[in-house]
Amino acid sequence: MSPVTIYTKGWCPYCSAAKDLLDRKGVAYREIDIEATAGARTEMIQRANGRSTVPQIFVGERHVGGCDDIHALDARGELDRLLAA
């Protein structure tokens, strides 16, 4: 399974929704709170090609996007395939 990284803020409902989806699928992920980790916001923006909202989700090195994006991938049946790669 490809490693998953999710950049979050502790109070963000979209972050919670994205993490809930991953939790329901039994996916382990590395969570990086951009408010609690020095330099994480800058790192996230660079990795996400300028996107500055949270969450920003990566599967391996592939940028998946945010909460709506990961839910859309799941609805199309593409998330499981991506995670298994």
From TrEMBL:
Domain Glutaredoxin: 4-64
Family matches, as InterPro entries: GLR_AS (IPR011767), Glutaredoxin (IPR002109), Glutaredoxin_subgr (IPR014025), GRX_bact (IPR011900), Thioredoxin-like_sf (IPR036249)
GO cellular component labels: cytoplasm
GO BP of this protein: cell redox homeostasis; cellular response to oxidative stress
CDD domains in the cross-refs: GRX_GRXb_1_3_like
UniProt entry keywords in alphabetical sequence: Cytoplasm, Disulfide bond, Electron transport, Redox-active center, Transport
Keyword Cytoplasm included in the entry's annotation: yes
Keyword Transport belongs to the record: yes
GO terms, molecular function: glutathione disulfide oxidoreductase activity
Gene3D superfamilies for this protein: Glutaredoxin
One Pfam family per UniProt: Glutaredoxin
Family: Belongs to the glutaredoxin family.
Role of this protein: Has a glutathione-disulfide oxidoreductase activity in the presence of NADPH and glutathione reductase. Reduces low molecular weight disulfides and proteins.
Protein name per its UniProtKB record: Glutaredoxin
Organism (species): Salinarimonas soli
Lineage per the UniProt record: Bacteria, Pseudomonadati, Pseudomonadota, Alphaproteobacteria, Hyphomicrobiales
